[in-house]
Amino acid sequence: MPNPKVLIYAQRDEPKAITDALRNAGCEVALGDNAWQKPGADYRGAFVAAARDAVALMGMYSRAMPLDRAALEACQRLRVVAKYTAGVDDIDTDAATELGIMVCHAPTEANCFGVAEATIAMILALLKRVRERDADVRAGNWRGSDMVSVYLGARQSDDRPGLTVGVVGLGRIGTRVVDLLAPWRLRIIAHDPYIEPGRFLLAGIKAVDYETLLRQSDIVTFHTPLTKETRNMLGERELAMMKSTAILINAARGGLIDEDALARALAAGKLRAAAIDAFAEEPLPMSSPLRKLGDKVMLSPHSASFNEDAQLGPGIEWATRSVIAALAGNVPDNVFNREVIPRWKEKFGGASVMG
To answer: At the N or C end, where does the chain have fewer CB atoms within 10 A?
Structure first.
């Protein structure tokens, strides 16, 4: 019986120790072509040929080679897809669930908490006018009256409450953002219909419906995955509910927001400012109206999780452990589509394909 094949279809400089660990566990390791990651080209045939007999797929986030239903159906022996990243919207997880395929992701601390830290940095940069003040001094100006910033926290001296922060998505990143905001003694509200009430109590924040969050918040920050339910969850209608003095932060996924509607709202002064790290199309097209808004929008190249001592290393290690567990007939600890587990166990559970 041949060794089970693991295809690293979206490579990211995997350390030799990783491929050695897979081979030592009895796996055949195959590497995808780096050209598969180039936007605009069609390498589906080559991918299918390489993946047809694979029992596991590994890789980083890949818009250029999404795993849609057709790709997953072509992988006739596939048990598990293990991503190096937290996001899995490049995979048709509904199809994977129907086919009995586990999708594992890697919401590592360095990745998730790095995004939370970047979120705080963007909030402060927008409200404290960091970029504008720097540019003003470089231009020879000094403390112009138009460079006033916003005070975030509660003030005991005059009983003034702090700003209201609305957190959309109370997973690991959203919860970390709440933790980092604690010293400011802000009012924090959150919306997440998939989180049990106890999580809100533990975080010390109030659960509200989505419309209430939009209407009441001075800062709205998104930390939710991109799914059928969340795609375009902030459009023209929702933007109209927000305060004209509010700021918007999106360090999650680009498809959550209607970028054209956001650009119109910012241009018309219906929002104070926005900071965006993830876009519906990446790289951000030169024709995007977001590029024409000056300091009203801060643009970042989907890099909120990029930390010099982390990046994808911990995620690669986690994905490797997930693959080895799944091929041994066990359920890993980081399954994204957890509803697949009963079906997966029925198909594969307890049966190892290791030599």
So the answer is: N
Q: Which of 226, 212, 217, 133 is nearest to 181 (CA)?
A: 217
The average pLDDT across 295-299 equals 98
Alpha helices in the chain (DSSP H): 16-24, 44-51, 69-74, 93-98, 109-127, 130-138, 172-181, 197-203, 210-216, 236-241, 259-267, 313-327, 341-347
Is it the case that residue 174 has pLDDT exceeding 80? Answer: yes
Let me know if 341 is exposed, middle or buried by CB neighbors in 10 A (0-12, 13-18, 19+). Answer: middle
- Residue 6 pairs in a beta bridge with 29, 56
Give the burial class of 212: count Cβ atoms within 10 A of its Cβ; 0-12 exposed, 13-18 middle, 19 or more buried: middle
pLDDT single digits (tens) 138-154: 999 999 889 999 999 98
Strand pairing partners for 318?
none
Alpha helices in 28-83 (DSSP H): 44-51, 69-74
Alpha-carbon span 234 to 244, nearest angstrom = 15
The amino acid that residue 150 corresponds to is V
Task: Collect all residues with Cβ–Cβ distance below 8 Å to 156 and sequence separation of at least 6.
Answer: none
Instruction: In whole angstroms, give the CA distance from residue 166 to residue 223.
Output: 11
Contact 174, 251 (CB under 8 A): no
pLDDT tens, 245-265? 999 999 999 999 999 999 999
Where in the sequence numbering do the catalytic residues fall?
Answer: 253, 282, 302
Token readout for 10 is: 């979206």
Cis bond before residue 285 (omega within 30° of 0): no
Cα separation, 80 vs 55, whole angstroms: 7
pTM (predicted TM-score): 0.86
Phi-psi group of 53: left, alpha or beta (phi > 0 → left; psi -120 to 50 → alpha; rest → beta): alpha
The residue count for the chain? 355
Identify the helix (H) or strand (E) that includes residue 353.
none
Q: How far apart are CA 263 and CA 293, in angstroms?
A: 8
